[in-house]
Amino acid sequence: MKIEKQIERKEKGAAAEHKYKNFPMVPKVIFGRGSFMQLGEILLPKRRNSDAPFIFLVDDFFHGKDLEQQIPWLFNDQIIFISAEEEPKTAQVDALVAKIKSDFDELPSGVVGIGGGTLLDLAKAVAIMLTNKGSSEQYQGWDLVTNRAVYHVGVPTISGTGAEVSRTAVLSGPDKKLGINSDYTTYDQVVLDPNLLKTVPKEQWFYTGMDCFIHCIESLTGTYLNAFSQSYGEKALDLCKEVFLENLSEEESEEKLMMASWHGGMSIAYSQVGVAHAMSYGLSYLLGVKHGIGNCLVFEHLGEFYPKGVALFRKMKAKHGITLPKGICANLSEEDFNIMISVSLSMDALWENALGTNWREKINAEKLKEIYSKI
Ligand code: NAD
Ligand code: ZN
Asked: Which terminus of the chain has fewer CB atoms gathered within 10 Å of its CB, N or C?
């Protein structure tokens, strides 16, 4: 009897071991206006020696702007400006790593990413690839990274993606767009300075902000929902409603969206996104449509999946006078549609979260084509 009980307990334990992810969080975060000015003192104890530089990967919007002067470089540190015009690619990560390795004899003390989701993901991936062999495309997937990354710091300058808290770095590779999902991906330090958001253009503010709003809707209505995700998702959703539907001061709006992004990212950590993201990945893969706007283009037509969310989205869009581009899929061939549909339908976890384990009975290529055709 005793032994049976023990075996039973062991089996339950083993099942639990595989069922729940032991999730890393950002261990250090500084929040506040002007906190970017403290970056120098934050990095100082992490400098191994004067030959081991810090590499600053910075959105090229800031080239020649005030922020450039405030980057706390020392010794042989390197500032590399990078365009966020295109989302990060595995080849780009590999080229940056090769350059850093050839420029310096020592491994860097750390990597600092300054920018939106594009730069934040790029910096995470570079930090990982400095200590892991081969090409970054080998690590797209789940838990494929074996060595700890170099110390890495994220400084968001636009809010919404949640890339500052997530354990993934989304990259486009030669045959897929997929994140490097690993315990080593998450930032060691994040600097949240709402002053850095001041220059974001209105439309981009809306699109990236809506990424957060859509994360909340997809997480909160998903079948994977649990109390952990719900607690973060509800907070993020409330903050989004305040930011996009009320009349906050500019300062309040910046601060609240910054925290909404954080909570939205935490919410999907322990659940998943859904239909909008699955379909937006298809658009992005075929047409290079960027994440924020792609989600908006799709979400607009998802009333049957997310009726309340879509109604709120329309209200927000109207309040801020945002008009989405039209005719994106107007001239696509049958083959083009098939590519988008197959990319989208390959995201099993997203569909399962959105529609349940029997999702294949509820969605099919025809239905997706009908939605894509409206975009
Ligand atoms: P982005 O980084 O692509 O930047 C969008 C535009 O805003 C760019 O033109 C950029 O130069 C500009 N910009 C950024 N900060 C600015 C500022 N302060 N002032 C003026 N202009 C500024 O935008 P994003 O929406 O934050 O990121 C999209 C990327 O995030 C995609 O690559 C997507 O795959 C990724 N993403 C990652 C995660 C994750 O968990 N890792 C989650 C969602 C999205
Ligand atoms: Zn997203």
From this structure: N
